Automatic annotation (TrEMBL):
<keyword id="KW-0802">TPR repeat</keyword>
<keyword id="KW-0433">Leucine-rich repeat</keyword>
<dbReference type="InterPro" id="IPR036770">
    <property type="entry name" value="Ankyrin_rpt-contain_sf"/>
</dbReference>
<dbReference type="InterPro" id="IPR002110">
    <property type="entry name" value="Ankyrin_rpt"/>
</dbReference>
<protein>
    <recommendedName>
        <fullName>Tonsoku-like protein</fullName>
    </recommendedName>
</protein>
<dbReference type="GO" id="GO:0031297">
    <property type="term" value="P:replication fork processing"/>
</dbReference>
<keyword id="KW-0539">Nucleus</keyword>
<keyword id="KW-0677">Repeat</keyword>
<feature type="repeat" description="ANK">
    <location>
        <begin position="247"/>
        <end position="279"/>
    </location>
</feature>
<feature type="repeat" description="ANK">
    <location>
        <begin position="214"/>
        <end position="246"/>
    </location>
</feature>
<dbReference type="GO" id="GO:0043596">
    <property type="term" value="C:nuclear replication fork"/>
</dbReference>
<dbReference type="InterPro" id="IPR013105">
    <property type="entry name" value="TPR_2"/>
</dbReference>
<feature type="repeat" description="ANK">
    <location>
        <begin position="283"/>
        <end position="315"/>
    </location>
</feature>
<dbReference type="InterPro" id="IPR011990">
    <property type="entry name" value="TPR-like_helical_dom_sf"/>
</dbReference>
<dbReference type="Pfam" id="PF12796">
    <property type="entry name" value="Ank_2"/>
</dbReference>
<dbReference type="GO" id="GO:0000724">
    <property type="term" value="P:double-strand break repair via homologous recombination"/>
</dbReference>
<dbReference type="Pfam" id="PF07719">
    <property type="entry name" value="TPR_2"/>
</dbReference>
Length: 319
């Protein structure tokens, strides 16, 4: 665990162009891996050191590091990567002065691409960096790397779903507007459904259906704000139709109260409870009472057309 943490910190400081700290953490990673005989971690550390030296045009140092990474192959736990390592060694031995040596310093993805790493490995680099920035309480930078990872997973519904969920959590940590967070969670759920991954669907839906301090669900808030597109999205993705906030109001109550005619129509089309009298503290107020009380007569007319009771009374009206 420590050796990977040191490696991640080294890569973070490399992206920040802090050569001193980068070197200290990468050397610590090598030291711990050698002492504990962690062949896979040692291979990874030398591989990244070699990549950094190669990017900086330090070909002899790059060759030595990549040879050491190659030597880790077959020592027990290290994965078999001889072809890739040989390719790096060839680049280092030949100099690659016309390309990499002349290239400006770049972020991990850029130099990894220059070294010809495959997309899954590039994605793993970004996940590692995003996780480290999250641990350092820098969610904006974490989100940046998650989005870089997302671009590498294009077309893979399962990985896209996982990455969108990670982006949503980074946004939540950064305190960004709830609407942005919900949009990411909605996309995560959509991709999880496309992949048929039930466990990821449950995780995304659990975060997506979280309530605010008034007990309002995302559907409540979309109805209050009059955001028809979000209402359509939530219903398409299986959001509960008649949840109550802590006072007892349903999304249909809120849409009627704020006069959002098309949202009311959509909720009724989906089967919303037209005569719901609210919770115990709502005094028997139905959506029709809300619409009439706020002067939204077109909404009231639609409710009546859809079967709303004209005889329903609230608690303030005596029998």
């Amino acid at each position: 665990m420590r050796t990977r943490l040191y490696l991640n910190l080294g890569l973070v400081y490399d992206s920040l162009r802090d050569a001193g700290r980068r070197g200290r953490y990468l050397q610590r990673s090598v030291f711990v891996a050698e002492r504990a005989r962690l062949d896979e971690d040692l291979q990874r550390a030398y591989f990244n050191l070699g990549a950094i030296h190669l990017r900086q045009g330090q070909h002899p140092q790059a060759l030595r590091c990549l040879q050491r990474a190659r030597d880790c192959v077959g020592l027990g736990t290290a994965p078999p990567l001889p072809r890739r390592l040989c390719g790096r060694q060839a680049l280092a031995a030949d100099g690659v002065r016309a390309g990499l040596a002349a290239a400006p310093p770049a972020a991990p993805r850029a130099y990894a691409e220059a070294l010809g790493r495959p997309a899954p490995e590039l994605a793993a680099i970004h996940v590692s960096l995003a996780t480290t920035f999250g641990d350092l309480q820098e969610p904006a930078r974490a989100e940046h790397h998650y989005r870089q990872e997302l671009a590498l997973h294009r077309g893979d519904a399962l990985e896209e779903g996982r990455t969108w969920l990670s982006i949503a959590l980074a946004k939540e940590e950064a305190g960004e507007p709830r609407a942005e967070l919900e949009a990411c969670l909605g996309t995560a759920l959509e991709r999880a459904e496309a992949a048929g991954e039930l466990r990821l669907q449950v995780r995304a839906r659990r975060r997506w259906n979280r309530r605010n301090d008034r007990g309002e669900t995302p559907l409540h808030r979309a109805c209050i704000e009059g955001d028809l597109r979000r209402v359509q999205l939530y219903l398409k993705q299986g959001h509960p139709l008649n949840p109550r906030d802590y006072c007892g109001w349903t999304p249909l109550h809120e849409a009627c109260n704020h006069g959002h005619l098309e949202i009311v129509r959509l909720l009724l089309d989906r089967g919303a409870a037209v005569d719901d009298a609210g919770g115990p503290g709502c005094e028997g107020i139905t959506p029709l009472h809300d619409a009439l009380g706020c002067g939204h007569f077109e909404v009231a007319e639609l409710l009546v057309q859809r079967g709303a009771s004209l005889a329903a009374r609230n608690a303030k009206v005596s029998a």
